[in-house]
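[step 3/7] inverse_fold.run input=structure_tokens len=434
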């Protein structure tokens, strides 16, 4: 029963050879033209990064039966569950292989054993004013975990470059393991009361997270957490949170510092905060036009949002050009568990209305919903109604993808990122007369 670290130790030399081969064969080949608009346009579509966990294309879809961890593949949940376990997904992200049930259970136990957070981090969280946004508290706590970083210590002790991945692996495992305790503490401090329950080593990661949030006895909510943490984990490397983590990691900042930077990017309303924004937008809509509103009233509200110079949160995407498969996965969950929920019905009604309006408005390249259009409705259904907390759960999940890449970046000796920037005057000068 190989552990994840043992399997990595076997895979790393093979991948080093593989990268060497790819670079020898293709290293000097052009990867398409760069046009000036891409420099001004947020580098959209610019091939610029290596990210091994996942790759998207505009029409990408993962039918759920092929999704790691769902029935048919190992790492499905304990008896009675049918959602994937994020443990299995992490193994897949790191190794490209589907783990055995035993390996998944070992990961659950390992993370439970690593889950405690230092007392001073608890104190930092307890001192935060409840008015400080949960994402800011989250980022503070993750930054502070760098106090015990194995990588930072090893670097100070003069570790060889070839050994970077070992302490990066340990930090990454600690990071993921400690997130439920951080998220749970923030949730209790800001919205709840009472003592935080202990992590149970016999339970899987998502079950423990649900328990710390106060929903551990609700089987459907536990299932939701398994699905939620799985689908938010990785979305190739160019999105703000993933890329930020990789960029900061490239300076050999340890995984805690790198991932705290990811969280600060995820906290932006065009990225992860959109799941909070969707619920705020829906609530305002309901307050204005009432429940069971007509399609006409919804259309008018959507147009008013656009005319007010705001985005429709939860719609559009920088890469996808169709309905986000993560939206569909959540819709399927809702159809199974909460088909009669009024807010779910509103989300469905909006799905039939918004794309046509965005197409008519003529700006958005993708008029379809993304992952954030659906998640808040599911959480609200089970009583997790505090919208400001939603992006924290996205953050817990995103650690899986970022951590997997940080391990590989250090294993493969990824260099400091330092692309070339230009001024508008320089662009003008370069292309004068051309
Ligand atoms: N509502 C209104 N306008 C939108 C829009 C939306 N949902 N999506 C795109 N547009 C607009 C853009 O603001 C842009 O307008 P300007 O030309 O005035 O700047 C124009 O359409 C073209 O944008 P695009 O190329 O289609 O989209 P981008 O790659 O620039 O941006 C995204 C992608 C997600 C930021 C954008 O679609 C958006 O703002 N959506 C709403 C916020 C959201 O849901 N974000 C979450 C994304 C998923 C995640 O990361 O968690």
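[step 3/7] decode complete -> sequence:
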């Amino acid at each position: 029963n190989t552990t994840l670290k043992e399997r990595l130790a076997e895979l790393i030399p093979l991948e080093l050879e593989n990268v060497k081969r790819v670079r020898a064969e293709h290293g000097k080949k052009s990867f398409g033209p760069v046009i000036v608009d891409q420099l001004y346009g947020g580098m959209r579509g610019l091939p610029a990064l290596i990210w091994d966990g996942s790759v998207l294309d505009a029409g990408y879809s993962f039918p759920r039966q092929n999704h790691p961890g769902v029935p048919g593949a190992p790492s499905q949940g304990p008896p009675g569950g049918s959602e994937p376990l994020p443990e299995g997904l992490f193994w897949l992200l790191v190794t490209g292989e589907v783990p055995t049930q035993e390996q998944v259970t070992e990961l659950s136990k390992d993370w439970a054993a690593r889950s405690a957070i230092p007392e001073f981090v608890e104190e930092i969280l307890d001192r935060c004013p409840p008015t400080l946004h949960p994402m800011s508290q989250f980022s503070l706590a993750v930054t502070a975990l760098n106090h015990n970083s194995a990588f930072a210590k090893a670097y100070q002790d003069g570790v060889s470059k070839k050994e970077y991945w070992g302490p990066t692996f340990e930090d990454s495992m600690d990071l993921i393991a400690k997130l439920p305790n951080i998220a749970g503490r923030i949730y209790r401090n800001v919205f709840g009361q009472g003592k935080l329950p202990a992590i149970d080593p016999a339970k899987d990661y998502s079950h423990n997270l649900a328990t710390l949030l106060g929903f551990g006895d609700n089987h459907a909510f536990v299932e939701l957490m398994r699905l939620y943490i799985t689908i938010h984990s990785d979305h190739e490397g160019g999105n703000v949170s993933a890329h930020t983590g990789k960029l900061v990691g490239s300076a050999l900042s340890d995984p805690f510092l790198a991932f705290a930077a990811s969280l600060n990017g995820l906290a932006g309303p065009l990225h992860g905060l959109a799941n909070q924004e969707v619920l705020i937008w829906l609530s305002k809509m309901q307050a204005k036009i009432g429940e069971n509103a007509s399609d006409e009233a919804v259309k008018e509200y959507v147009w008013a949002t656009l005319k007010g110079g705001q985005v429709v949160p939860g719609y559009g995407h920088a890469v996808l050009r169709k309905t986000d498969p993560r939206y569909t996965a959540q819709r399927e969950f809702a159809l199974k568990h909460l088909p009669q929920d009024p807010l779910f019905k509103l989300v469905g009604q909006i799905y039939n209305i918004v794309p046509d309006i965005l197409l008519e408005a003529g700006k958005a390249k993708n008029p379809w919903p993304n992952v954030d259009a659906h998640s808040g409705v599911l959480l609200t259904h089970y009583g997790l109604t505090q919208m400001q907390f939603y992006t924290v759960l996205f953050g817990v999940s995103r650690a899986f993808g970022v951590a997997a890449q940080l391990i590989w970046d250090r294993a493969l000796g990824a260099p400091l990122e330092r692309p070339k920037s230009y001024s508008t005057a320089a662009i003008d000068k370069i292309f004068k007369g051309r």
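[step 4/7] annotate
Residues 89 and 124 are 31 Å apart (CA to CA).
The radius of gyration is 22 Å.
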